[in-house]
Amino acid sequence: MDKVVLGMAALRFLSASIEFTVAILILYFGRVETAVKINAVLAMVGPTVLISVTALGLVGLAGKVSPVDALHRHRGWLYIPGLRHL
User: Fold this and answer.
1) pTM over 0.90
2) Parent domain of 73
3) Is residue 11 within 8 Å of 49, Cβ to Cβ?
């Protein structure tokens, strides 16, 4: 199996483990105030994992994708921050 695919899956497993641990902590503390604080910290994990997995995938594709296709993908990334304001 491709090492890049294994790395991408490992990052997703790590993310899932963190989210599951947070769910247990929220149940353990049992208070809305604490749950919101814990959830706020977790909100930083999701985008970080998304960017990391995507970057790892793009590194794996670097030799297999034409420069024009890579340009189209980067242009698509630029739309994401622009659409947040809608």
Assistant:
1) no
2) 3-83
3) yes
